[in-house]
Specification:
Layout lengths: L2 H60 L4 E5 L8 E5 L2 E6 L2 E6 L5 E3 L7 E6 L4 E5 L1
Parallel strand pairs: 5-7
Antiparallel strand pairs: 1-6, 2-3, 3-4, 6-7
């Protein structure tokens, strides 16, 4: 075997090894990045559900006539929030988080994320609607 052929073969082997290491590194980075994105979405959803639940609980505890306005900010586009029983539920994709509320007597006229939300105690229950 001549020297040029040996150098070319060694170069190809080293190049294949380097490409393999690079592909592996990109794969590992992609997996970690996906986990980070999922964690961030879960955290943002939990913050949103707790913010809405805190508003409902405060108005409920303050009694008849109490009201507050919160910004139901939406940092992730596919969040959907609703009230079910004694919980505020925020869904996205196949995931959800919930936060407890003190009363199940909550009427939701409208709850659009990304807007201000009025929460008021009308004496018979809690009403929620967008401003």
């Amino acid at each position: 075997m001549n020297k040029k052929a040996q150098i070319s073969a060694e170069f190809i082997i080293i190049l294949i090894l380097l490409i393999s290491v690079f592909v592996f590194a990109v794969f590992v980075y992609g997996e970690q990045n996906t986990g980070f994105i999922n964690s961030r979405e879960n955290f943002e959803a939990k913050l949103l559900s707790e913010k809405i639940a805190r508003g409902i609980n405060n108005v409920y505890l303050d009694g008849n006539g109490a009201k507050t306005v919160i910004l139901a900010d939406k940092r992730v586009n596919d969040f959907n929030a609703y009230i079910s029983g004694n919980a505020v539920i925020v869904e996205w994709g196949n995931n959800y988080v919930d936060s407890s509320v003190l009363t199940s007597n909550v009427t939701v006229n409208s709850l659009t994320l990304g807007q201000f939300v009025n929460i008021k105690n009308n004496g018979t229950g809690i009403e929620i609607d967008n401003s």
